[in-house]
């Protein structure tokens, strides 16, 4: 079981700038918990995501000596990936590839064919620099724009990624559009069809639907889950109103119920939860 904590996703849509020192201290608390990966920041245009303009400064302030958690940075283009690749502390580079043409344009100012070309170059860069590319299939469970979507469409996108030798694909419910049925359908089809790919669930949710979504993904064989403490955040490029991230505390509680080990340190998790409350005011 791999739990990926996403403070970057939690912070990116907030209008009030979180001071660099506050970000750094929060990330340091998260690094003590034992998450598999920390989606800690992004190298994108500060005009697009002003909240994360200090990612390099935050990274410089982290003490990584005692953590086993991998650091993941999100990029929107090859230039951002080239920047991220210069940091030996960063093990993973994430890129959002949208199943929806409308959202791809909104999110990265590229068409899907252009994004695929960019992604291929980023994958080559990752191989050369010893990084792991994590590709997020944005709008993976549907979209609000009327763009084509079907399980077959998602499978076609996944095949293109497999052809590039992309090894981690996170199906992303960018606006909370998924249902338990679509989640179970996709994972149950894709996981056996692409055994070389590690599939993740990046689910956005409302408080009343989180359990059925997690249960559906878990039942279908998914063992990589993204979350954010407090369920804070969402994608500001997707909609005017943000649909919250999957609350990490709910993931932890669910996996405890089903007897699935997460490898997290309970004391450090409690301390990180308290720190999240201070940062995000919940």
UniProtKB/TrEMBL annotation:
Q: Fetch the InterPro entries from UniProt.
A: Aldolase_TIM, HMGL, PYR_CT
The entry lists its GO molecular-function terms as:
hydroxymethylglutaryl-CoA lyase activity; metal ion binding
Keyword Glycosyltransferase listed? The answer is: no
User: Residue limits of the Pyruvate carboxyltransferase domain?
Assistant: 1-270
Gene3D superfamilies in the cross-refs: Aldolase class I
Q: Which UniProt keywords apply?
A: Lyase, Metal-binding
Which GO biological-process labels does this protein carry? ketone body biosynthetic process; L-leucine catabolic process
Q: What CDD domains does the entry give?
A: DRE_TIM_HMGL (cd07938)
- PANTHER family recorded: HYDROXYMETHYLGLUTARYL-COA LYASE
Which family is it part of? Belongs to the HMG-CoA lyase family.
The name under which this protein is listed is Hydroxymethylglutaryl-CoA lyase
Lineage of the organism: Bacteria, Pseudomonadati, Bacteroidota, Cytophagia, Cytophagales
